[in-house]
Amino acid sequence: MTEHPVFTWVENICVVYFSMEYMLRFLVAPRKVAFARQFLNVIDMLSIAPFYFEMLLWLCGISGENVRKVRWAFLTVRLLRVLRVIRIAKLGRFSPGLANFALTIRKSKKQMQMVGVVMITVVIFFSTLIYFLERDEPDTKFSSIPATFWWCVVTMATVGYGDLVPVTVAGKMVGTGAIVCGVMVLALPITIMVNNFMQVVKLREEKIVKKYAQQHGDQV
């Protein structure tokens, strides 16, 4: 499937503009390493990287159908093409809502790490239980504990695809426990994110009020 030439030209122009803008900001930045490690600047770099990687492959003689013959190059190009969607995150510079969301994620990092550890522990626990309860059943699909992780995650998320189903009474009881624990564990990140989001919005509003008071000389 070939890309429309108009879209190709539009993409090329946008990439050149983004590249020049990134390089100029990098050159005037007093601390280069800190600049490169900032979240939005990492997004900027990831958004333009696919274009230059494909150009590098083209210069090496790997392009078009030849990319498919080199498996690693083909998979890398496909992955980087998906990463083009990251460019929409650049709107966070101009959208207070997206900026608040990014700050909320950064503020919730430590709490989310704790929730992740709890989630992994619970998944291993229920996967181990269901494996030992179901492994001796005829035609069982619970072949190993790692293979049971998929069932546990799907069950805890209350999705229930039905590709792995316990058949014993004890296994169904464990599945019920996994559902209940999943609801409680998955509720934690939502509570944390909402609480931190409200704090971020409150701080931003306080900064706006303070800036307004300084500009107009009023006591707010």
SSE series: HHHHHHHHH
Mean pLDDT score, rounded? Answer: 78
The second-level CATH architecture of the largest domain is Orthogonal Bundle
- How many angstroms separate the termini? 60 Å
Give the helix level as a range of percent.
over 70%
Low-confidence stretches: none
Biggest sheet character: none
Percentage of residues in DSSP E strands: under 5%
Membrane topology: Multi-pass membrane protein
Organism: Teladorsagia circumcincta
GO cellular component, one term: voltage-gated potassium channel complex
Main location: membrane
Outline the structure in words.
This protein is an all-alpha fold. The chain folds into two domains: 5-94, Four Helix Bundle (Hemerythrin (Met), subunit A) (Up-down Bundle); 102-217, Helix Hairpins (Orthogonal Bundle), CATH 1.10.287. The protein contains nine helices and no strands. α1 packs across α3, α6 crosses α9 (169-216) and α7 packs across α8 (145-156). The termini are far apart. 12% of the residues are buried. The model has no long low-confidence stretch (mean pLDDT 78).
Sum up the structure in keywords:
flat, Helix Hairpins, potassium transport, Transporter, cation channel family protein, 2 domains, Four Helix Bundle (Hemerythrin (Met), subunit A), mainly alpha, 220 residues, single chain
Question: Can you give me a brief rundown of this structure?
Answer:
Keywords: Cell membrane, Ion channel, Ion transport, Membrane, Potassium, Potassium channel, Potassium transport, Transmembrane, Transmembrane helix, Transport, Voltage-gated channel. The chain is mainly α. The protein has helices at residues 5-28, 32-37, 39-59, 65-69, 71-82, 96-107, 109-134, 145-156, 169-216.
